[in-house]
Design brief:
The complex is a heterodimer of chains A (221) and B (190).
Chain A (H helix, E strand, L loop, with lengths): L1 H18 L5 E14 L3 E15 L2 E17 L4 E12 L3 E15 L2 E14 L3 E15 L9 E15 L2 E17 L2 E12 L7 E13 L1
Parallel strand pairs in A: 1-11
Antiparallel strand pairs in A: 1-2, 2-3, 3-4, 4-5, 5-6, 6-7, 7-8, 8-9, 9-10, 10-11
Chain B lengths: L1 H13 L10 E5 L6 H9 L7 E6 L4 E9 L2 E7 L5 E8 L6 H15 L2 E11 L2 H10 L7 E12 L2 E10 L4 E7 L5 H4 L1
Antiparallel strand pairs in B: 1-2, 2-3, 3-4, 4-5, 5-6, 6-7, 7-8, 8-9
Classes of the chains: A mainly beta (221), B alpha+beta (190).
């Protein structure tokens, strides 16, 4: 167990040490995920995520936006599922729509679970055209007790995501890395607390670096 | 700030209903918390890699399990609460099952499900602990040692993708099966 905690701390400390020197934005990103299983391997996922800025050039609390999404998923293999849905991004001035499609593969091994997620989304912005993104995320859930995650146990979740975006013939790449410490309240409920680092605009400009403190709640019915 | 408060309140709405259920769980434990004769039995097998001990607590039973790797294979030695040996399981590949037994098992699954995939295969030894120890020390196989295959498969059954754990005799005859509860992976998918 100790070496797993050590890996998590290294993951947590190294990026924060290096990157905190030039953080563009720091904020809070809590989310609530509710998943409802339906017959014949269908499921529906409701997610709401609120973005709140704590630092942008200076320390100052600002509500940024809230995302609300509804995604319908269908298992097409024991470890594979496809999903599609709609996200509504609400800020103080506007509501933006986004359509989402994804394919995810989750495989449980002895001692950890590994997930690959391939997704595409299209963001419809008023008078600005459509923003297309293609994403790949690899993530792992590592139980800190035993070889499988049981209720009342802590776990570590690490993830790395690459997002390629195309908007009006302009290309950008965003890279995300996240480390969370989680707790399984029951087989169907999990809490996670950690950091989510995102950097983009580094291909043609000064990189934008954003640090989010995430708090996620997952509940499956 | 009001948005932060709303987010936290949403969290609290969900939490009270959670955590009242009782489930089976596996805990890593120290060697000194294991019945002495279980430790002595595992020591007698002379594994060279580190042995990890676990306690498995279910609704109506507690057991102890030693896990290790030996010559590239995963070993699992299970004991009852009082330290009595229940079985030794070794993870193997499907080609390591004798051809006649493998054909019988494969035919059983094909007849039952049509399409299926092997997820995990273990050979299981149970019986008199002294005879089993002798087998692992010297390779001396006595008829009194019972050999089974514990096999996890994935398949599509009644329109759903499921996993089952099966037990077969050494000859490939069905003994019992249990459906494996698939744990939610929503925090890795969304």
């Amino acid at each position: 167990m100790n070496h797993r905690i050590l890996i998590f701390l290294i993951f947590l400390i190294i990026p924060s040490g290096i990157l905190s020197q030039s953080v563009t934005e720091l904020g809070f990103l809590p989310s609530l995920n509710i998943n409802k299983k339906l017959p014949r391997d269908w499921s529906v996922n409701f997610k709401t995520e609120s973005r709140q800025s704590l630092y942008r050039e200076d320390f100052d609390y600002n509500y940024v936006l809230t995302d609300v999404s509804l995604i319908v998923a269908k298992r097409i293999g024991v470890n594979t599922s496809i999903a599609a849905g709609y996200l509504m991004r609400i800020d103080d001035n506007s509501i933006i729509s986004r359509s989402i499609q994804q394919l995810s593969l989750v495989k449980r091994y002895s001692g950890f679970a590994l997930s690959h997620r391939f997704s595409a989304d299209q963001t419809f912005k008023h008078e600005e055209g459509i923003d297309f993104r293609f994403r790949y995320r690899v993530s792992s859930e590592i139980p800190l007790e035993g070889h499988a995650l049981d209720p009342k146990e802590f776990f570590v979740k690490l993830s790395n995501e690459y997002l390629a975006s195309f908007h009006l013939q302009e290309f950008d790449l965003e890279i995300r890395g996240a480390g969370f410490i989680g707790y399984a309240l029951s087989p169907s409920s999990k809490l996670e607390l950690g950091i989510d680092f995102r950097t983009d605009s580094f291909l043609n400009d000064d990189p934008r670096k954003r640090f989010w403190i995430g708090f996620n709640i997952y509940q499956t019915f | 700030m009001k948005h932060l408060i709303v987010s936290l309140m949403l969290s609290l709405i969900v939490l009270p209903g959670i955590g009242q259920l009782k489930y089976e769980r596996e805990n890593r434990i120290n060697k000194r918390d294991v019945p002495e004769h279980a430790v002595r039995f595992v020591d007698s097998l002379r594994f060279t890699s580190k042995i990890k001990w676990f306690q498995e607590t279910g609704i109506d039973r507690t057991s102890f399990e030693a896990k290790t790797r030996f010559r590239g294979k995963r070993y699992s030695i299970e004991f009852s609460e009082d330290g009595t040996l229940e079985d030794i399981e070794i993870q193997i590949k499907q080609k390591e099952i004798p051809i006649d037994s493998y054909q019988a098992i494969h035919e059983y699954f094909s007849d039952t499900y049509g399409k299926f995939s092997f997820e995990k295969i273990q050979i299981q030894y149970s019986g008199d602990p002294a005879l089993i120890a002798l087998f692992f020390q010297n390779g001396e196989m006595k008829d009194e040692i019972e050999v089974h295959y514990e096999i996890v498969i994935s398949t599509r059954f009644e329109g759903m993708f499921l996993m089952f754990e099966y037990l077969f005799t050494q000859e490939g005859e069905f003994v019992k099966k249990a459906q494996i509860t698939m744990k939610p992976t929503d925090n890795l998918e969304f």
